[in-house]
């Protein structure tokens, strides 16, 4: 658990991007939710990614030198991650500003929404690339990319269910959870060969993630059927905790502080 700032950064940044991407797709495909709900979802996404960014700063030995990450853009996966998160957050803020100050500029709002969603997709792809390190075989696997992408839509889908409890968001949430559960046994089998001792130490977190998944899906289905927001809020909270548990286990697969 020595990398808690990165645990919160990665999970929350992915949840924020997943939420905004899903709400954008809802707006493009079924023309819902309304502008007010879209604005609220954008604010929630901005707050979450803001907390994620603050968590990342806490991990730095000298936070005021974070600007140095810009010099590694293009060649350093970590720099690309930081820059993409900044671009996503900046575009999201600009989108909300236009939506609030110039609501009549519908084309500009739509364009900025799509641009922000694309930046969110780039962020989701770039975060896992930080951890594909050849010297750490338990990270240097396709499982890392798949699990982190799915995390965006388990947590993001559950958050979307709060504002838009429809079949699309429910299906994305449940399917993402099911895929995560489906690949978990083969991933644990892989870890039992590459890092058996570390896997044993982190099994309680993997077990917690699985158990929380079951609770979260049950709450999400009930939230959809009953159309009751507290259940949707509970589902999203449980899923975020589940992803945090899994991410702690992931970072604990490396015993040396980053």
TrEMBL record:
Gene3D superfamilies: Formate dehydrogenase/DMSO reductase domain. This is Dimethyl sulfoxide reductase anchor subunit family protein. PANTHER family: ANAEROBIC DIMETHYL SULFOXIDE REDUCTASE CHAIN YNFH, ANAEROBIC DIMETHYL SULFOXIDE REDUCTASE, SUBUNIT C. The keyword Cytoplasm does not apply. Keywords: Membrane, Transmembrane, Transmembrane helix. The chain crosses the membrane at residues 6-25, 37-61, 81-101, 113-131, 143-163, 170-191, 203-224, 231-250. InterPro entries: DmsC. Pfam families: DmsC.
């Amino acid at each position: 658990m020595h990398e808690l700032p990165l645990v919160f950064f990665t999970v929350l940044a992915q949840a924020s991007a997943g939420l905004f991407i899903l709400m954008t797709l809802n707006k493009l495909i079924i023309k819902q939710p309304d502008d007010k709900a879209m604005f609220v979802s954008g604010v929630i996404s901005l707050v979450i990614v803001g907390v994620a960014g603050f968590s990342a700063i806490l991990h730095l030995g000298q936070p005021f030198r974070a600007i140095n990450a810009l010099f590694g853009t293009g060649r350093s996966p970590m720099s690309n991650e930081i820059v993409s998160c900044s671009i996503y957050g900046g575009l999201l803020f600009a989108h909300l500003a236009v939506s609030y100050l110039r609501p009549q500029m519908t084309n500009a709002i739509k364009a900025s929404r799509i641009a922000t969603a694309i930046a969110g997709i780039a962020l989701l792809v770039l975060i896992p690339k930080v951890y594909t390190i050849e010297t750490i075989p338990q990270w240097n696997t396709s499982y890392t990319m798949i699990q982190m992408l799915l995390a965006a839509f388990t947590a993001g889908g559950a958050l979307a269910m709060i504002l838009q409890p429809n079949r699309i968001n429910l299906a994305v949430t449940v399917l993402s959870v099911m895929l995560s559960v489906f690949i978990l046994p083969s991933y644990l089998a892989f870890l039992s060969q590459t890092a058996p001792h570390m896997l044993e130490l982190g099994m309680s977190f993997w077990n917690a993630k699985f158990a929380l998944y079951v609770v979260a899906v049950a709450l999400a289905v009930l939230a959809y059927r009953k159309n009751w927001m507290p259940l949707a809020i509970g589902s999203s909270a449980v899923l975020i905790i589940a992803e945090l548990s899994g991410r702690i286990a992931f970072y604990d697969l490396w015993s040396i502080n980053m």
